[in-house]
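Hey team,

Filing this mostly as a record. A colleague (T.K.) asked me to run one chain through the structure pipeline before their review meeting, and I want the input and output archived in the tracker in case anyone asks later how it was produced. No errors, nothing strange. Just documentation.

Input sequence:
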Amino acid sequence: MQPIRLIRSAVTVGGWTLLSRGAGFARDMMMAAYLGAGPVADAFNVAFSLPNMFRRFFAEGAFNMAFVPIFAKKLESGDDAQGFARDAFNGLAAVLIVFSVLGTLAMPWLVWAMASGFAGSERFDLAVMFGQISFSYILFISLVALLSGALNAYGRFTEAGFVPVLMNLMFIAAMGLAVWFGWDMGLTLAWTVPVTGIAQLAFTWVAAHRMGLRFTPGLPRLSPDLKRLALIAAPAVLTGGVVQVNLLVGRQVASYTEGAVSWLVYADRLYQLPLGVVAIAIGTVLLPDLSRRLRAGDAAGGRESFNRGTELALLLTLPAAVALMVIALPLTHVLYERGAFTAADTQATALVLAIYGAGLPAFVLHKVLQPLFYAREDSRSPFRFALWAMVVNVVFAVGMMPLIGFSAAALATTVAGWTMVWQLWRGSRAMGDEARFDDRLRRRLPRILAACGVMALVLWGGSVLMAELLTAPGWRYPALAGLIAAGMVSYGGAVLAFRAYRLSDLRAAMRRQR
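Output structure:
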């Protein structure tokens, strides 16, 4: 995959992710309006976070990081990639069926471990009930992640990209039906979770079948390749577990303030929009590309792909991070404050959003730097780095909670994120020139930062001038759109003026796509 094809594939993934995040944001706007940040919202957010937490533990953040490089190399060499994928699918399914049953039975303990501050309140019983209904989602979505990884290795990003869009559309439809028929909103959301998992698995299964991949269910066969996969995946699974411990710590800290779990979730949705569009897109495309290049011995091509992916990621992420910090309050007020979502909820969510914004570049750089290790089948180094980041997260979250309350959870996440980046960067120094920034990236990064500074001034000035419009009914939506447009235009103009990116780069890219 040439660098321009890598960027084009990343744009494809990013486009679908943008659509997914947009639909997900619409879903959360509806949830905020119907549930606010009350007990039902807190309970559902904790219950839904449990299968998603273990999904990242088993599949997206761990198993797939080990599966994709091996599968991609088998495709490159002409080995039996389909047989390997089938064995991996059956092995993962067997583990997850057992885990789903055990997790459902142990739901009261899982809820307590996630949010002990709920104990003795209505939120605890609701979270247990919602969790028992929705926990089987981990089985379906983890198998979807494996199938999506196989499709990505074939360069088929559209099918896998539609999967999260489908989930959010089903949630939106379910809430609409609940309002229409008068159903209980909390129970409706809980039952929608496993239904969406079944729909996502069916869609991905059909997409893989059309590609010629046959995933016949059966008893797992412990082949030599599967043993090798297990050995490589084990440290990655532990790494995913460490990352989820960080999430667990944050939820625990937040659970002692009513509404705080929901504030974190609503802020998370806003910063996940740029994170998903850029980081997931770049990481999804970069890992199989680097794996193929290592197999072919193309060190120069690998370095070019790594640097152009990093350049694109920072070009898009840094302004998003600045915007989230500078206009966190207007964003939260305009997008969320309605119905059951109060002004106090807006203030708390905006604070969390600004803190998350400071960590956004770190979370994106994770996705850029980690493939350097996983493409080399090195899952041990990221595990060691994640352990240290976990220690930092726990110390900050617990130590700062008496001083700044629930926002300590967000601050700890951001500080731990930058700690992880620093370790990944240091660890990659031993990989040689292939993992180093080239002259073009080093020259352009300061210019990108300068352009972000110009945009920050425009956004701050605009938010002051349009303060009344941003809170006026009927005007706040166009006012926010105008403010965002002013920020985008100022950033784009500054990027071109400072030569952080050139029109000739875009024209060359368009010519090479023809």
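Quick notes for T.K.: The first helix runs from residue 3 to 35. Residues 441-514 form one domain.
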